[in-house]
Design goal:
It is a single chain. By secondary structure, the protein is mostly beta strands. It has four helices and 30 strands. The relative contact order is 0.19.
Length: 416
Amino acid sequence: MSTVTKRSLILVFTVMLVASTVSATGGVAEAAGSGDLTTTGGSATYITGGDAVTVDPGLTVSADEVDGARVLITGGFADGDELSWDTAVANQNGVSGSYDETSGVLTFTVDDGTVSAGAMQAVLRTVAYRNTADPGDADRTIRFVLGENPYYEKNDHVYEFVAGDTDWTAARDGVGAYYGKDGYLVTVASSGENGFVRDVIGGNTAWIGAKGGGNIERASVIYQWKWTGRISGDSVFQKYIDPRFGPGDPYWTEAGPYANWPGDSPDTESGTIYGYIRSDGTWGEKPNSGSVDGYVAEYPAVSAERTVEIQTAPTVTSITRQSPTGQTTNEDEITFRVSFSRDVNNVGTDDVAVARQSGDVETTVESVTADSASEYDVTVALGAGEGELRLDIDDADGDIADDAGNTPLSPSVTGD
């Protein structure tokens, strides 16, 4: 800055920090007999660079007892996204937590088998979200899942490997319910799900819900494989066709929606046979009494989610001299324009401060006039004296905000 003659003014302006907010709206999971998890309505607000915000302090859990839980960022996950929790509350309730920053999954395990629904509810209510980098503008979906069993977000189901050498029929009949949700031998409908099931069995072999046999639906079909699990209607996923109803040799139809035999088709073409998954994810065929390490059960999950909307808060983008345009002046007043990145409200004379850096020049902020909802003209009256001046934005009462109520991180920023 430099010293100027009487009523000369050096204008310095302030640019406010960029901030973002996140709003979360609630939904409700389907009620289940012995397990239910419900998120509340309303919203939460997160300001980028600020403190973490609790995702859902009103979440409720009802169950006889709980063996674990997961919280996942299932939509819009980005670098810097974090889920945290109150470790003191978790410790008091016999629960431990672990967050995987590469997948956006927070896993809660129970230190001693199970805890009450109220204990897990207390822990889940402390889960908080923040982003330590740039959240961008994509929505986030945060899902709470009841139970310790592995969760596959693509279909909102959980899976369980049950160890033990049992026959296929006994495995099918042995699948029960998980938090009131009836299960079945796993149905694999995609390569992604197949890879997930492979990871669930952890190097073992296991029965899946596939069954082959000669339950002929048309004379042209010699043999077929079908699912006994979640697929309703036509559960047949592969057929062996009699050549008498077409040219060439007998052939297997293309599997649909998915199959993972080591070759293009299964080996068996007669009798009743059952499917299992190997440790490498490929499928095999065994008779009902064939030896495997266990079976995989699949259940609909007890879960609920909140959608997280990211909004960008307003910032000051520039302050320019309007009249006069020069850096120094001998006029009785000066007007300069404050521009915001978006429309804002409640910009008044109490939000603008002229700081005297040196000298004794007298100043008064006379008016703040909206040229538009994002641009405001500030008129400053100059009295006797001379000196160096600086302009600050000082929103001490925090009333400058956009239509959504978003405010900057720092209510007061000093000019350079």
